[in-house]
Amino acid sequence: ELNANDVPTACTTICAPIVQLTNTCDVDPGARENDDEKNGEDNGAEPDEAVESQCVCSNKSFDVASIAALCASCIQQNGKGRTDDEGMTELMGCVDMDNIMSACKFSSMSYAPSATALVAQVTVSATKPAFTAATATTTTG
Fold first, then answer.
1. Are 10 and 115 spatial neighbours (Cβ–Cβ below 8 Å)?
2. Distance (Å, whole) CA 122 – CA 113
3. Sign (positive/negative) of CA torsion 71, 116, 128, 2?
4. Total structural domains in the chain?
């Protein structure tokens, strides 16, 4: 999930559709990150990540592959660093976009400010997946 507050100001326009799409596709907002932080661990892929990736990667309401690639490139060019718990500096939004690009197998592109014209007519249309963390760990019957 790409959060708006992780997107550099210069990338707000080009990344807006990806922020909107990933937030719509996020089936358990904040809970996974909070659980990992609380436990002091990150166990890698969670069951909901596959559902979220499918929602993002298969979306046809706009050219997700191109806009995601341009957003990732813009963040790399304009990103602001933050220091994580281990003292490592990362570009805010870069990890999220790298995960999206990798999960969807999107090809990279080079961002130029003129590319923002590509999102002028974009309307993001997506339905939040019907998945909850509870359905991954419990069954009813």
1. no
2. 17
3. positive
4. 1
